[in-house]
Amino acid sequence: MILDTNAFSAIADGDLDIKPIVQRAPVLALPVVVIGEYRFGIAQSARQSANQRWLTESLPKYLILDVTEETSAHYAELRLELKRIGKPIPANDLWIAALCRQHSLPLLSRDRHFDNVPGLHRIGW
After folding, report:
1. Which of 10, 33, 60, 96 is in the most buried spot, having the most CB atoms within 10 Å?
2. pLDDT confidence of residue 112
3. Would the pTM count as exceeding 0.90?
């Protein structure tokens, strides 16, 4: 299962509703895009040191997914599909969706716009 930024943040915040979903996942993957968004949040946080420490300690628990040339092909295909149906999504979310498609993994996210992405299975909580 791939984690969106809101799922990763929920884990960091100790959200009890997400815990059983995460525990059942055979693999937890984290796109570099999500790590970048999370680091941006840390930079604006009043708890920068604690949040950075948590991130550093947590990253080894995840399969980190890099954006590759193959990912770029999925990105372009998805962007065109969503444009054609008039349902664009934010650019970072397109990269996350492309990684989901590339790795054939579901996405844990609260963002319902992922439901418009053909072939993507979003798990909400």
Report:
1. 96
2. 97
3. yes
